[in-house]
Design goal:
- It is a single chain.
- By secondary structure, this protein is mainly alpha-helical.
- It folds into two domains: 44 residues, no CATH class; 44 residues, no CATH class.
- It is 66% helix and 6% strand.
- It has four helices and two strands, in the order ββαααα.
- The protein has a two-stranded antiparallel ribbon with strand order 1-2.
- Strand 1 and strand 2 form a beta hairpin.
- The longest helix is centred in the middle third of the chain and has 20 residues.
- The radius of gyration is 22 Å and the shape is extended.
């Protein structure tokens, strides 16, 4: 069953009394508090952290920092980054 709250947000009714109570309590929280709960819920759905991935990212970060420090990195300024991102997003939108 679908219904909408006063802010026109879709709410899926799963029929569980406990879930209804939690949902009602959560929706009465501030936006910041709801965001924190949402984050914690999403994190709880992830599996355990993959140490190999974490180590690989650490190595990649160190590699990139070394390139910046040595002057071999190809850096761009903010306006160029924004131009490239707008072009990329436009292509994605048109796709």
């Amino acid at each position: 069953m679908r219904h909408y709250n006063n802010s026109d947000h879709l709410i899926l009714n799963m029929g569980s009394t406990s879930l209804d109570k939690v949902r009602s309590a959560a929706l009465s929280l501030s936006e910041t508090e709801r965001a924190e709960i949402a984050y914690n819920l999403v994190v709880s759905l992830d599996g355990p952290p993959d140490k190999d991935v974490e180590q690989a990212w650490d190595a990649e970060i160190m590699r990139r920092l070394s390139e910046i420090d040595s002057g071999t990195a190809n850096l761009i300024d903010r306006s160029e980054f924004q131009r490239r991102m707008r072009a990329y997003l436009q292509v994605q939108k048109d796709f």
